[in-house]
Design goal:
The structure is a homodimer of 235-residue chains.
Chain A lengths: L10 H9 L4 H12 L2 E3 L4 E3 L9 E5 L2 E6 L5 E7 L4 E2 L12 E4 L3 E5 L6 H27 L2 H18 L3 E2 L2 E3 L4 H8 L3 H14 L2 E4 L2 E4 L2 H8 L10
Chain B binds a DNA duplex (30 and 30 nucleotides) through helix 6.
DNA sequence: CGGCCATTTGAACCATTTCAATAAACGTGG
DNA sequence: CCACGTTTATTGAAATGGTTCAAATGGCCG
């Protein structure tokens, strides 16, 4: 029991349904695209900075990240990509990638070239706005929050996003990444991230162990970092 | 002599012409909008986080910033807005502002509601892509660069952007902001920004005094921070 | 069992912050 | 045009948060 049926409604589809009203035609098109998703293993690149963007893709499962690599080996992860997130979601002609997209786990992604219904175009636009809001959140984290606050704020954001795709509930979610990866996103060293994690655990605020995050009191954490849920539209 | 003619080609117009090929119709429409630009004095808000976005506006002159305010008084400036930049440039229905936009000097801005030619729509899309690239640059600055590198990188970005609008040349541009404002953008204290500025001056790399920035060797600065110019399209 | 990678720990070090005091520049009204 | 209060920039000294480097520990996979 509890084994997923072969065509379980994917988290990616759930997220898109949550951010825009999709008609049957759109859902059919999406399901067809998702059925033909291709898999890329961890550490492979889905897109490379400076290269031309071929088309929109949808993350169907797994974790990826947008990254900027510096000449001297430092790297900054811009944002995490989870099921339901889009890659190459641009609006102009012959776009160039401004960041590299890196698979952090095995990632399956679907080509959205043939998913261009009216409803889906609206979903893409909303997704873009949400993504922008997350970039602003990342800037604020890096610029003005302490290590503990950064981590709490990131976990709250991931929780909110994963919940949209049905991949988080009850203050818990799977986070199949290394500390070093999260450190690269938060502008910290992995050493300090490790210590910060222990601090959070000792304080009883949240923990991350064995690939699972538990947030003990979401409302209180939100207060602590002054966080409010992301909203990009009146609707 | 040297007094600007009443209808000098504005920096804002110059930037839009630089990022997309504009036909006469578009330019006429823009000029009409710019002629009717309205002025807001420093410290006033052009847009408030969480409120509905009314329509696109174009910064015609002056400096503004997108900002996030934290509950405890900390604030993070997300990005600077200069002539030719857009506000409220969204693609979906009933959008909400995800950041406050604050006038840093007196700012004049034009309503673009009636500027919807094909060429202008393309310009808006390209502008959006450029803005996103700048957000990524800001994330990298805050996450992985030292104070001196952050400052150099920001000045290089501003130089590049101002040059597009014809407002910078020869490694020099006007920067009519306080140190505290720039510190809030760079995630530093104004005290440390002041010290960093002195370091840069002593090293002969760049200086900012009396509202004017001078970059002494752009190519060398770019090497120092590992910076490459922003490109978002093959065209 | 052995090797590899991720995590933890400790100690020294450094970049940046904090707080407080001073100096300079600015605008405003008399 | 000067005197005023206010904002902005600078300086110093001490405290802090985060980094660095190196070594130890623990899991996991072959």
């Amino acid at each position: 029991m509890n084994s997923a049926p072969p065509h379980a409604r994917s988290g990616a589809l759930r997220r898109l349904e949550a951010i825009a009203a999709l008609d049957d035609l759109s859902i059919t098109a999406l399901n067809r695209a998702i059925d033909e998703a291709s898999v890329l293993s961890a550490r492979r690149e889905l897109m490379i900075e400076g290269q031309e963007i071929v088309g929109k893709r949808l993350i169907v499962s797994g974790w990826a990240a947008r990254a900027r690599l510096l000449a001297d080996g430092r790297r900054q992860l811009i944002s995490f990509l989870i099921p339901g997130d889009l890659i190459g979601n641009c609006g102009h002609k012959r776009p160039l990638a401004v960041s590299t997209v890196l698979a952090l786990t095995a990632v399956s992604s679907a080509d959205l070239t043939h998913c261009q219904t009216h409803a889906l175009k609206e979903a893409y636009e909303v997704s873009r706005a949400i993504e922008e809001a997350h970039l602003l959140a990342q800037i604020t984290r890096l610029g003005r929050l302490s290590a503990l606050e950064r981590l709490a704020d990131l976990f709250l954001e991931l929780y909110e996003r994963l919940a949209l795709a049905g991949l988080a509930a009850d203050g818990r979610f799977a986070l199949p990444l290394t500390q070093e990866i999260v450190a690269d996103a938060l502008g910290l060293t992995s050493v300090h991230l490790s210590r910060t994690l222990q601090l959070a655990r000792r304080r009883g605020e949240f923990e991350w162990r064995d690939g699972r995050v538990v947030l003990h009191d979401i409302a209180q954490l939100e207060r602590m970092v002054g966080r409010q849920p992301v909203r990009v539209s009146m609707l």
